[in-house]
Amino acid sequence: MFSGIVEEAARVVDVIRHDGNVDLRVECSFTDELKIDQSVAHNGVCLTVVSLPGDGTYTVTAIQETLDRSNLGDLRPGDLVNLERSMMMNGRLDGHIVQGHVDTTAICEDIEEVEGSRYYKFTYKVDPQMASKGYVTVEKGSVTVNGVSLTVCDSEKESFRVAIIPYTFEHTNFKEIHKGTKVNLEFDIIGKYLSRLMSHE
What we know:
The protein has 201 residues and is mainly β.
C-alpha cells in the first residue's frame, strides 16, 4: 500500500531484458535502507527488490504483464523514475490510498504554465465496461500519475488535467514529461469499490 507521495526521483542505471521480463537497476539515496523482498513503487508500479549488490543500487524485476500495462518498458538508462516505499501505518496519509497497481497509461496532450505552476492535460482510452467499474477520473477526485497523488481538474470522458506546483515539478519526473510522454495511471480505489457495490444493487 502506498500514498502517492514520491520520496525521490531516481536515475535508472541499467535495463536488462531477459525472457520477456525486465530488470531495472536503480540508484537512489535510500538504497542502504532497503532489503530483499521489500516493495517499492516505481512510477506507481509496485515492484519487489530482488538484488542489493552494495554499490548504492538495487534491482527490481518487471514481468511482461506489467510492461504491457505501464510505461516501465520504455525506461532507458539515465531516465528518472519516481520512487515510494510502502506506506507506514503509524503516520498521516498525506496523499490518498494507492495500491501500486497501474490501471492504464495516458499520453500528455498539453502543458500550460499558469502563475508559476503547470497544468498537464492527459488523454487515455476509455473502455466502457471498465469505466462502469470506476476506472475513470472524476472532478476533484484523486488520481495517481507516475506514482504521484494528484487532484483531478477538468475531468472529461477521455481526458483530465492536474496542476503541478513547483516543488512537485522539481522533485518528481514531471520535469521530464513533455507533450507525447506516456505516463502510468491508477484510478481511485474507493471509486472502484463504490462502482462495484452499485452494480450489485
